[in-house]
Amino acid sequence: MRGQRVAIVGGGLAGIAAAEALSRFPFEIHLFEAKRSLGGRAGAYRDPEHPSLIDRCQHVAMGCCTNFLGLCRRLELEECFRRDTKLHFIDGDGQTHPFEASSWLPAPIHLASAFGRQRYLTKPDQKRIAAALWEMAPPSAVEKYAGRKMHDWLVEQLQSEVAIRCFWEIVLVSALGAPLSEVSFVAARKVFVDGFLRHRKAYQIYVPRIPLQDVFDVQAALKLEERGVRFHRQTPVRQVAYFNSRFNVRFGSGSEATFENFIAAVPWHQSPKLFSPILKNLMPKLDNVEEIESSPISSVHLWLDRPLTNLPHAVLLDRTSQWVFNHGARQFKESTGYYYQVVISASQDLAGMKHDELSRLVLGELVSAFAAQPAPYLLDYQVVTEKQAVFAATPFLEGLRPTQESILPGLALAGDWTKTGWPSTMEGAVRSGYLAAEAILRKYDYDEPVGDSDLPVSLLSRMLWGLGKDEHRR
Ligand SMILES: Cc1cc2nc3c(=O)[nH]c(=O)nc-3n(C[C@H](O)[C@H](O)[C@H](O)COP(=O)(O)OP(=O)(O)OC[C@H]3O[C@@H](n4cnc5c(N)ncnc54)[C@H](O)[C@@H]3O)c2cc1C
């Protein structure tokens, strides 16, 4: 490996994870990123009216995101995230329902009493939800309901409209990036098994304490530079070709360079055009990536003249707004503004709405949810909609995702959209980067895993449903 050069194209989480894994070995690693900063979709922007960086959209990880958390540990980024064990659901009447695991019960009953306290769900609804979770949990459900769309399955399981809207949808739409009428049962099952049923810490959420750009473009990059990784920002790659057992990389500037190894870590919609026709022929699945459905996420940033709530974040039920994150007091012009970020996943229905209209709708929802009196004054707002934020976890998705390893040694794909079994998340991106690194390492006869194992399955979940018995390392 010594002296062998690796080009990684794309400085999102997938590219960063690949660089992290390979930097444990004596490669010469070059990471090329088209934009000014690393982080990709988990990025931030500057606005002249606001002194601090603004995350394009709030990102959170969960306790089950073992590879993302492992990457953070290896790059000493743990301090950049806060771990929250308590969630809050706010119903249509403005009632707040805390949701926190018992301090001692094992999964899956650790959340039973928290679930029972969600009074916007009637007891019959809660019973039917529990019965549906019981039906979905065993590994055999994957085969039994393969190809099924989640909404159809929920109707079959006699779930009421309220249960679908206020329980299933609220968890799944943000995790899977599409309405329940489009997402697959298998993907939905994975969210519940990994996030709630297998381990008592899996549901906890990790919230960045500092802007994402500071996490990935500054702190992560610094650690990787110490390990010798060379970052080339604002260096778009136009195309890669293969000559004389080497990858010939042509940059947007017209210059070229050759490498023994190449990892493409760009999003699905940008991947096919990166490869010369000959290389593309070696990766037949790239022809199908256009069929991967993208889904938008809108992020509404509000600066108010007074605080709305002390809660750090809340899930809003029965509203357009889905999650609200409280970022506290921030400097705004010459004074102070209280900054809130509201996330709306699968926001395609809002496409025609003007930004001021959407901001006022969201503000109205926050005021009623938190019964804020007198109503705060809106100092400033910004709406950021990422049209291709995530891919939708439809029943066809898994058949479209390529593996990281190609048939050409030294050539690998990474990106949240490649085959990891995970939805479009930072965890999926990091897993893909680690799997791409493993593919490169196999060329040098190194065949050990570089990533992290899943959280272990609790004894009770194993006994109840046989969870974990069918699992390999990842
Ligand atoms: C609005 C929004 C909210 C989200 N919320 C969450 C969340 O709360 N939790 C969560 O886990 N996930 C969330 N996600 C998903 C998460 O951001 C992505 O899954 C993850 O960041 C994808 O990482 P990636 O490296 O695969 O791709 P990307 O982040 O897209 O990185 C690809 C990089 O490649 C670069 N690139 C592309 N073409 C070229 C080229 N030709 N040359 C050089 N560079 C190139 C791009 O500039 C980009 O930096 C969210 C995404 C969005 C958009």
If you had to describe this structure to a student in words, what would you say it looks like?
With 474 residues, the chain is of the alpha/beta class. The protein folds into three domains: 5-47 and 210-292 and 394-443, FAD/NAD(P)-binding domain; 102-203, Orthogonal Bundle (Guanine Nucleotide Dissociation Inhibitor, domain 1); 294-391, Alpha-Beta Complex (Polyamine Oxidase, Chain A, domain 2). It has helices at residues 13-22, 66-74, 112-116, 123-136, 140-144, 150-156, 161-176, 185-197, 212-226, 277-281, 355-369, 397-400, 426-443, 459-465; strands at 5-9, 28-32, 44-47, 50-55, 61-62, 81-84, 86-90, 96-100, 205-208, 230-232, 237-243, 246-251, 256-259, 261-264, 294-304, 313-316, 323-332, 335-345, 378-391, 411-413. A seven-stranded mixed β-sheet has the order 8-7-16-17-18-15-19. Helix 2 packs across helix 13 (426-443). It is globular and about 65 Å long. The two termini are 25 Å apart. The relative contact order is 0.19. Bound molecules: flavin-adenine dinucleotide. Flavin-adenine dinucleotide is lined by residues 9-15, 32-35, 40-42, 57, 59-61, 236-237, 265-267, 270, 274, 297, 299, 386, 389-390, 415-416, 424-429. Keywords: Oxidoreductase. InterPro entries: Amino_oxidase, FAD/NAD-bd_sf, Flavin_amine_oxidase, SQase_HpnE, Zeta_carotene_desat/Oxidored. This is 15-cis-phytoene desaturase.
